[in-house]
Amino acid sequence: MNTPSSASPAAGCLRIPPALEAAVAERIARYPQPRGAALMVLHALQDHFGFLSNEAIEWAAARLGVQPMQVLELATFYPMFRQEPPGRFHFKICRTLSCALAGSLALHARLCDRLGLDPASHGPQTTADGRFTVELVECLASCHTAPVLFCNQTFCEKATPEQVDRMIEECRSAPPEADGS
What we know:
This protein has helices spanning 18-29, 38-49, 54-64, 68-77, 97-102, 104-115, 161-173, and strands at residues 89-94, 125-126, 132-137, 149-151, 154-156. By secondary structure, the protein is α+β, with helices and mostly antiparallel strands. The protein has two domains: 9-77, Orthogonal Bundle (Arc Repressor Mutant, subunit A); 89-173, Glutaredoxin, CATH 3.40.30.10. A five-stranded mixed β-sheet has the order 2-3-1-4-5, covered by helices on one side. 27% of the residues are buried. The model is unreliable at 1-11 (pLDDT under 50).
């Protein structure tokens, strides 16, 4: 298939590493029609970049042989895709039945209150300084230890308000990353 290089004008300033480009090509090759790989391509791009920029959407569309709007429709329909970069510390709080009954919505409200975010919002929210993102998500597959949440790769079971407070303080006291965040 003839596809534009990662430096084409359609890709804007997006730089796709060769390994990612190869992984995307391999995913596309699994399907009889390239567009069938759209969700897998979006997952690969988001896993690499942390979110789906307009340039990533355009790049994916070029690889899939579809219009960017068709890819954008998928990216905005499915809640697991983000169009904005998440904060350095990304809290995901389960909102499904077991966790909700065990207090996850109160944990979400506490996180939002402590971080200056709107506890009534159910979409992802990021603090003004870009350090924290808080969002309610569907099942985190640990109903027997509800309520549960993730902060980046740290999984917290039977979470309490005090644990949430400690997690926030640990994040706040973490040394800055090399990029200054």
